[in-house]
Design a protein that fits this description.
alpha+beta, six-stranded antiparallel beta sheet
Amino acid sequence: MTTSATSDVTEPPCTGEIAVLANPSAGRGRLARLLPEVLARLGGAGASVRLLEASDAAGASDACHAAVAGGAAALVAVGGDGTVHTALQAVGGTPVPLGIVPAGTGNDFAAEVGLSTQPLAAADAVAAALAAGRTRTVDLAKLRSGADRTRWYGAVLGAGFDAIVNERANVMRFPRGPRRYDLAILAELARLRPRRYTLRLDGVAHTVDAVLVAVGNTASYGGGMRICPAADPGDGLLDVVVAGAVGRLTLMRIKPRVYRGTHVEHPMVSTFRARTVELDAEGIIGYADGERAFPLPVTITCVPGALTLLS
């Protein structure tokens, strides 16, 4: 059932095992120093806390699914948006609640659903919610490629210039850190060209030439870039933002405005809302919550209340 807002629920206090997924490299290594204190605070709820063991992304995903299938009372993601994205694959569409302790360089989803972005304060809030049995639900986006591949995402799907930059940056071996993305942006700006996109928004077809298409369940990605500024994870709808056939200079002039969300006022930027978005363009691989997802074409559906949050 579609709801127009998040809903709050109080259940009996959590007494089962709390599974914790942590990315020690989050926040450029800051989490490794904080993790023992975070775990101690989570244990303050009185429940058993188990740190999931994983050596890589695939192992982390498997560990989350195994914990949920094994009856974990809750899953807590400690890290950035990528860690949350991994956890969503296990708890999305289930009654198992998710706690979030933001500790990455970008914590967009946590911020957009009103959670503290300070790790220790967030850990205390999760522990308090566990002790009180307090949860609320928010929408998630369900991304589908073909007949049998699906992923959940919480924040934004990038499917244009942003995704192309991510794709280039991910194959670069030097430099490390944010400079890699700066160089990838410069390289892709030199190759910038509009692409022909086909969109179906709740069944209504649109064909556009564009350099950027974003589909948001929440407003921001990339560490506070408010690409879909009106997106609301409690309205049962996805927000679609399209930057048309702009050139390099115009794109670079628009980009700083994204942090304020005022880019949508530019005459070459269009916005839409829909429950279901079908999206296709040649040569684009979508990035959801900053993580590599599927090549286009894809279908994205807003699923109201698909995530239960400890909050």
